[in-house]
Amino acid sequence: MSLDRKTTALKQLQGHMWRAAYATGHVKGEVFEDVVPAIRKWREAGMKVYIYSSGSVEAQKLLFGYSTEGDILELFDGHFDTKIGPKVESESYRRIAESIGCATNNILFLTDVPREANAAEEADTHVAVVIRPGNAGLTDDEKSYYSLISSFTELFLPSST
């Protein structure tokens, strides 16, 4: 974990360890205050929202089920983890698109990791890099290349209906 490895087995182990901490209330998933209102707005416009994380699906469900905003699992249409493939490989994004029955060019992928943004872009998805406190810094080239947002309120998405 100290090497920040994104292996599926390690992420699953983390998920099992976290289950007890979340269930007892010792841990809550931190959600930025702009996230829930933005996702609600997108869903009202007919959009689907999925999570693709290096954290296991179990860990994702714990984080969003026991979040600082309460149980917000109903906001998500599905969850993906590294079982679908590494986030730094474009084929993973194609598999997700196939799994949800959507063309890759109808997907917006939000990340704070440029290597993931690059892989998603190679799969023909739209990408925005999210700048949040605590995230790793970006190079000047990355800052000028990617669409950058610091809040979900900065996204203006077309209705899917």
TrEMBL record:
<keyword id="KW-0028">Amino-acid biosynthesis</keyword>
<dbReference type="Pfam" id="PF00702">
    <property type="entry name" value="Hydrolase"/>
</dbReference>
<dbReference type="InterPro" id="IPR006439">
    <property type="entry name" value="HAD-SF_hydro_IA"/>
</dbReference>
<keyword id="KW-0963">Cytoplasm</keyword>
<keyword id="KW-0460">Magnesium</keyword>
<dbReference type="GO" id="GO:0043874">
    <property type="term" value="F:acireductone synthase activity"/>
</dbReference>
<dbReference type="InterPro" id="IPR023943">
    <property type="entry name" value="Enolase-ppase_E1"/>
</dbReference>
<keyword id="KW-0486">Methionine biosynthesis</keyword>
<protein>
    <submittedName>
        <fullName>Enolase-phosphatase 1</fullName>
    </submittedName>
</protein>
<dbReference type="InterPro" id="IPR023214">
    <property type="entry name" value="HAD_sf"/>
</dbReference>
<keyword id="KW-0539">Nucleus</keyword>
<dbReference type="GO" id="GO:0019509">
    <property type="term" value="P:L-methionine salvage from methylthioadenosine"/>
</dbReference>
<dbReference type="InterPro" id="IPR036412">
    <property type="entry name" value="HAD-like_sf"/>
</dbReference>
<dbReference type="GO" id="GO:0000287">
    <property type="term" value="F:magnesium ion binding"/>
</dbReference>
<keyword id="KW-0378">Hydrolase</keyword>
<keyword id="KW-0479">Metal-binding</keyword>
